[in-house]
Design brief:
Order of helices and strands: EEEEHHHEEEE
Strand order of the largest sheet: 1-8-6-3
Number of domains: 2
Shape: elongated
Distance between the termini: 80 Å
CATH superfamily of the largest domain: RNA polymerase II/Efflux pump adaptor protein, barrel-sandwich hybrid domain
Structural class: alpha+beta
């Protein structure tokens, strides 16, 4: 039995390895990755606007687009969306009459204050004039609050997400849903 071994330690192995390389000019561009997923987006705020009176419905024009408000339109707080018209309702409020009564009550109160200082009337007469003035002032404020019900105004910034279709001048009943607005925006302070 014979064992032979071969030791090639003295042999130098030189191998050149070549890797293909491509060169590209560096440019600034965004890195994007799209991920498909499901989830629920919760609004920062939402409001459902309903009719507070029975009246004729008139949709207003979106000042940004020049057309009537539509589903998906962005809206700012305080923007007029629609108005409700009912002449009988407006007449029953009697705002102008109540304002005139307020002016008369204010004049009467000033007159009574002047007479009281001179001793021409009693304290009871002065207080009665004061009560009449306060009642007239409250009546005017209530009239203005009643008139606000005829204007449908956005109370938050957001997007119109529900807009039932009503033909212009259609009669809408009290409690009818007119709009739903949602705000999905984050405040700057919320952004991390």
């Amino acid at each position: 039995m014979a064992i032979t071994s071969c030791r090639n330690q003295d042999q130098n192995l030189n191998a050149d390895v070549e890797i293909p390389v491509s060169v590209e000019e560096i440019k600034l561009k965004s890195i994007e990755e799209f991920i498909n997923t499901t989830g629920t987006a919760f609004p920062k705020g939402e409001i459902l606007l309903k009719s507070k009176i029975t009246a004729s419905y008139f949709l207003e024009i979106n000042p940004q687009t020049g057309r009537n408000w539509q589903l998906g339109d962005k809206i700012k707080e305080g923007a007029l969306i629609a108005r409700l018209e009912d002449k009988e309702y407006v007449n029953s409020i009697k705002l102008e009459t109540n304002q005139l009564n307020l002016e008369l009550s204010e004049g009467e109160l000033k007159k009574q204050e002047s007479l009281y200082e001179k001793g021409g009337i009693t304290l009871k007469d002065l207080k009665t004039a004061g009560i009449n003035y306060q009642n007239a002032k409250t009546t005017v404020e209530n009239s203005k609050l009643q008139l606000i019900k005829t204007k449908i105004v956005a109370s938050i910034d957001g997007v119109i997400v529900d807009l039932p279709y009503y033909t212009q001048s259609t009669q809408v009943e009290t409690g009818s849903t007119l709009f739903k607005i949602m705000n999905y925006q984050k405040d700057r302070k919320d952004v991390v």
